Structures are given as structure tokens and as C-alpha cells.
């Protein structure tokens, strides 16, 4: 028997394992993926959203708690637990020294990420380097790691964790942490959640999965069946509009299209359906997957002209290019008359002021529905480019309801020795929407707390200074 069993292999799981081991607990981490694919969705991340009251190493200016909170409140539409959200925000301001101690390195943001240079700390080498650093540190500290070890079922005694089963093997532990992600790779569950639309389509059949294929929600489903308290909507997710040519799994961040705010987005009927210039892209990019999912055929088309080139992170695939708008419509398979009429109406509605893609400028439309609030420049300069878009699911928000202790709850009663961290409980903070880097903030904060609490439940006193005063 080990002291602490961690189920999962991404950022939250690793933070939990490291914290528990630092407290003196023996730790076994079970990763469902093979070693080459370890790390879950964390291997695809780039940065961590961080509160700071003054410039700090790679972070410029200041990003105080209240601004972070207002950003989160806006993107979630109020669907967030303020106490838990503020716990994450405060923890984000103190976690980087601990991360560095375990080998994580940071770098200044690149020119293509200027909007988050103040708010987000970027990982040197990206998420894969972060995951590898944590695994190296875990090995050095004596954390046992097993790959290709998916937990098939849990054994509980009421609210108390007893054992986990991997195939026919029964693994007991004094306490456990569930950090096994959402259910985004479970196509049947996605179909059940989204159902059929008015056109008789099953929208989930057209979703691509930006991250790992191993997040199938097995433990989440079993805990739900055992009566664990849940939170969130099964259709809500970190869902991004990505290149329709992306692979089914593990396309990662390079499949994202970042030119949406600089042009127009049309559905397959060549009509606009949302304000492309509503806010800075890092605050709004994660609504566009859901918007596209609600369109016929779950497909959209991002249209820009030559003026936008060089003002966004270059996509991994070249767009369709044409010297005229009718030609672009034909190449994209869109009805030419409606396409040109949509663009003409937009061009006529543009009220161009001082264009500046680095701020909320005064270039907007008048008399157009939906409006374009910022960065509204006419599409009139060839060549023109078009990118087909599909919904790309990163992680789902339906999850386990927790409090600041991260204990899994059953009928309102907290488990004495089963804790949850990361995407499997992120819905407590993210009821909808997303802002860049906050998933890593959630996973890091709750992963560290869960590991310390699990060590305590196994009889080891944790010296993590953040658990008692942040999570009280």
C-alpha cells in the first residue's frame, strides 16, 4: 500500500504527486498514456496566467487580483465560484518559485503574443518541457510512475477511497487524487451531451480534439454513478475554432486560427453569425469553437485580406488564396452571390478610425448585425485568404464539485481521503468561456492543494504554506 495514489499524468496530477512526496508521503502516479504521450493536455500548453502587482521577471507592468477576477468574470458570464476563482488567482501569484524548483523555466512572450505579455508567463520549451521537468523531478524525489495504466474502476467505502483497479490489479492507498481530465475524447459522451440539432445532425461527430485521446472520463463517470456531487454543463468546454484540416487528436495549439478578429467569419451559407472584434483574441478565442459548433455542418470560414497578414500568429497550414472575392468564394465552396453580398454589406458598414490591433481601437461597423466592435477594416486588398474552421475541443467543463480543500463531495459530505484537481474539477471556476492560460492556473493551484491534502490524509504533515491560508 502506498500513502498517496495519483490518477492522471498531466500538470495537476504532477503538481499533486510532487507536493505529496515533498510532505514525506510515498506516491504512485498512474498515467493512462504510454510514456511517449504522457502529460495529457498539458503537453500542448504554452503559458500560465499570473496575478502580479508589479513587473516580475518575464511579466511586464502589473496584473492585479481584481483585474484577473474581472477578466474571469467576463468570460464566464458569472458562471464561476468566486471564492475558488480568487483562490486560483492568488495562488497564481506565488507558484512560480515552486515551479522553478522543479525544473520549469520561463521566457518572455514572443511578438505574436503581445496581448498576453502582461498577464501570462510563457514556458521555455512549452508544455512538453514543463511536463518533462516535472517527471524528472518526480523521479528524483522517488515518486513511482506507471505508464499505460488506466484506472478501470474505483473501490469506495461510502465517501472513503479504498482502492483503484487497473485491469485485474487492485491498488490500495491511504488517500488518492483524481486528476484524470475531462471526457473530451469520449465521442459517445459528447454525442449524448450535444444530441441532434434542428438539421438532424449530430454536432459532436464533427468535433476535433485538440488534446489527448486518453481523456475519456472513465473516473468522472464512475464517481458520478457513485453519487459524487458534480458541477457544470456537459456541453460547455474549452472549445476553439481550429483549422478544419487538423488531426482528430493532439493537434495542439498550432491548429488554432488567430486571424478571426482581423477579418470576417462566415458559416456555410456565407453569412456572419457573431462579432469578430468583440474583445482581445486571448479573451475570446475560446468562444469560437462553440459558435462554429452551433452552425450548420459545424463549419465556419475565416476570411481576411492582405492587410491582416503579419498581424497574427501564422497558422500551420496555408489558407486558400485568391485575387478576387468571387474566386475565393468558389475555392471555398461557398455560394458566390451571398458571399460577395455579405462582404459588401460589411465593407459599407465599416467606420475606420485609428486602426491598432494591439488595443481596443475605434474601427467599428454601424448598422450591421451582428456588429464588428473593433478592428473593422474593409476587405478590399488582394490577395484574399480563407480558412475553413471546425470546433476543436480542449477539455470539458462538467466535473466534480469541490471546495477549497479539493475533497470530492458525496451528497455535500467531503471525502476524508479522495481529492480532485485539474480539468476534472475545472468547472467550479469555468462554467463557460475561457481566457488564455487560466487552465494551467487552475491545475497548478488545485493540484498543489490536492497533493498536500492527500499527504495530510495519509498521515503526513504538509509544510505547503499556501494550503492553510489560501484554501482556508
From TrEMBL:
Cofactor(s) listed in the protein's UniProt record: FAD
Domain called FAD-dependent oxidoreductase 2 FAD-binding: residue spans: 3-430
Naturally occurring in which organism (per UniProt): Ideonella paludis
Lineage of source species: Bacteria, Pseudomonadati, Pseudomonadota, Betaproteobacteria, Burkholderiales
Protein name: FAD-dependent tricarballylate dehydrogenase TcuA
Gene: tcuA
Gene3D superfamilies: FAD/NAD(P)-binding domain, Succinate dehydrogenase/fumarate reductase flavoprotein, catalytic domain
PANTHER family membership: FAD-DEPENDENT OXIDOREDUCTASE 2 FAD BINDING DOMAIN-CONTAINING PROTEIN, FUMARATE REDUCTASE
Keyword annotations from UniProtKB, A to Z: FAD, Flavoprotein, Oxidoreductase
